[in-house]
Amino acid sequence: xxxxRKGSIHLFRLAGVDLYLHWSWFLVAAFEISSxxxxxxxxxxxxxxxxxxxxxxxxxxxxxxxxxxxxxxxxNQIVLxxxxxxxxxxxxxxxxxxLWSIAAGPLVNVVLAPVLSLLGVLNRSLGWAQTMxxxxxxxxxxxxxxxxxxIFNMLPIYPLDGGQILRSLLWYPLGxxxxxxxxxxxxxxxxAGMIALALWMQSAWxxxxxxxxxxxxxxxxxxxxxxSRLAKLPRHQGFACPLCKAAPPVGNFWMCxxxxxxFDTFQSQAVCPxxxxxxxxxxCLDCGQRRPMSEWVVPTxxxxxxxxxxx
Length: 311
Known about the structure:
This protein folds into two domains: 2-154, no CATH class; 233-311, no CATH class. The chain is 53% helix and 12% strand. It contains eight helices and eight strands. The chain has helices at 24-35, 43-70, 95-125, 128-131, 133-153, 161-174, 176-201, 204-231, and strands at residues 8-14, 17-22, 74-81, 84-90, 254-255, 262-263, 281-283, 290-292. The strands form three sheets. It has a four-stranded mixed sheet. It has a two-stranded antiparallel sheet with strand order 5-6. Helix 1 crosses helix 2 (43-70) and helix 7 (176-201) packs antiparallel against helix 8 (204-231). The radius of gyration is 24 Å and the shape is elongated. The model is unreliable at 301-311 (pLDDT under 50).
């Protein structure tokens, strides 16, 4: 999903999260607002309905981001684009942390449902259908949008929220790699059904969305295969990631950014054996986080001591 950030416009920063809007959003918004036929008397109301859709999407994505931070992960970017929104959340590699980070998004829609329902009751009691038909139609449309987003996102198709929640639950009995593998396989079945439905409905947008989900499902399968290979590698038992506590694998998996040569940073005491460059931080292959080498500790709690090596 990283390519979505390319060509995106920075709108603002809220609660430590940068919000971006992809340039293609404007093209699709103009098309949808101008071509959609509704019961509104003016296209201004069409625009308000379209903006309401993405306001709900934004609240949903903020749910993911704030929950990811609550469990100790990183979440500092949200990108809105024509197919919805993407919150770049990296929770700690634990099933409980991942589960809460994912479930918090749909929970926002769950909280919105009774609020919008109460507004609907107020709408009917005040007779807006006769006195303010445009506002009446907008409230009804927003209620349907919120419910539709909740139902769609809870489908057990990876990488939708439902598929990732399923993966998090399977993580407990199956482990990290096999749970992702199972979720993506189930996702492929679901995507096949979505593609068939898109053809039956002759819906170009549903087809595009299906292909996007298929691509991410394929990436999830490849990630599961990589995690499976990583889990089988021998480990440096004298060190542990300060965040996820995983022992680093043995092998030349770290790349020197000076001479572009791979090396085992724990075997060489964080010094590139080719150009003798010293590294103060290193990345964990299990959780993806970078921490100072001094924080990687042995099981006894003795911190790693760096010994400079002159080249």
